[in-house]
Task: structure prediction
Amino acid sequence: MPSGRLKKEIRLKGIPASPGIAIGPGYVLSGDSIKVDATPIAPDQVETEIELLLQSIEKSKADLVELRKRAEQSLGEQNAQIFDTHHLMLDDDLIVQETIQRIRENLETADHAYFQVIGHYETSLSHTDSEYLRGRSSDLVDIKRRVIRHIQGKMPSALSKLAEPVIVVAQELTPSDTVTFKRETILASATELGGRTSHAAIMSRALKVPAIVGLGSGLQSIRPGDLLVVDGNEGWLIVNPEPQTVAQYRKQLGKFSAYTQKLAQIRDLPARTRDGKDIELSGNIEFPEEAVSIGEEGAYGVGLYRTEYLFLTRDELPTEEEQYHEYARIISILGDQPLIIRTLDVGGDKLPASIHIAPEENPFLGVRGLRLYQPNTQIFKNQLRAILRAAVNGQVRLLIPMVTTVSEIRFCKQILREVMDELRTSRIPFQENLSIGATIEVPSAAITADIIAQECDFLSIGTNDLIQYSLAVDRGNEHVAYLYQAFNPAVLRLIRDIIAKGHQQGVWVGMCGEMASDPLATMVLIGLGLDEFSVSPISLPLIKEIIRRVDYKECENLAEHVMKCRTVPEVEDYLRNILRKKFKDLLYCQIITKPDPG
Result:
């Protein structure tokens, strides 16, 4: 019996990165770190160290070829392309030349020089506000470890050789670590660092291995063999759980297994209510690799592709060709399924180094979204050119962010016409009939949604900002976070009116904000007439299950009742009671059975 039974139960909260529940002994991955000493070298050793560096980079490239083959076999071609990214990093001439310069000028060993150069870029990425960029820092850690191990002649610990089932505990896992996971021996993982958008997290989801990231320094108290519970649905890691806790989670594990098996059966079925109302159920993605995972979860295309990462991951602007290839890559994955590409949406908390945005006292009310396009028209044009060219081979729709007035959407359409004329003059093939939509995420756009709809082919409700701006609540401010309420009657009335106004003008209305992923909201939104839900990949199966088990008419009646409620608790209590009665088999979902804290 693990010694953990004699210790006090400890609960650590992290970020759920891959769903599922696991119970088992901990395996502390502490021997995978690298040590580099700042030992000076003699001038006559410089060329030897440079040659050692270059040889180690080539050996690392050979490793990646083998890892890519393994990933392709276990995860599929698209996930295997993660290692193509690593190959490009190894080929980065700037990094290689900086390392060589340090060896020559500072008389440093190859491993120390490479450690310092990569560490500089790694630190920059890990401290950014962008979750996507923080996720890329683990890729740099991966190649740094690999090259330095070859320089030092050392081998990494082999997770693939574990004989007994364990839960891996580490400071951070890299894609090279994760691709060696065997489902029979790796029950789950828990890491101090990392984010949901890291490549290691994406691969964990593809392997269906529960994972929690961002647990912080609390992991350092875990000892090998300690009994652990990983709750990848809610983000809890429980160390040395009490017997009743283990019993509780074993029961949840059984329910979760039955639940996932049940939902897997409807993956390829349409999102259609029992009385025949079709709903377009698509997924939100931030980068190409996720297009595979949403298809595996039963989505019909992509309802929101955030393109910011192309601009936030570098110091210089992405070229038209680079953007074109990224968009074309996603289109090739989706085939004839729709792809809604949101044009560049930066500002506020997303500040790219490649675009100058002057400091603002209140950036969330400043230069955000399309407000950036007029002073930077060429940036906007380059993106439109890339989208139009890539759209030739797919069903692409264009979504404009942060629309507040009709004049803004007309400006964007005018630029789009100019770009089309330029492509036509240059005889470059492009999509002539590109659907264009407006994101409705501020009160002015919600109130004038009927006028904006006259200029568009569709509307997409961005609830994250719509709630924030409508209720005057900074969702990142912990002091007023309790006022950030999706089920506030004011928000619900705005959503109702946006849908109605869109339909009056003959355009369909979708939702790409987090509210679309909330199962508590599904029946309400159906009843209000929402045509399209674009949800997070993890929420897809559950939202589809709810859609398929309700009648459109009962949803209309439910929505009519909700619109008469005066307070948030009234709305939420009513919806929870309905869901408890109607979806007893889904009661493990805490969002259905428990009110949110506060």
About this structure: The chain has three domains: 10-28+157-239, 43-152, 271-564. Residues 1-5, 590-598 have pLDDT under 50 and may be disordered. The longest helix spans residues 46-75.
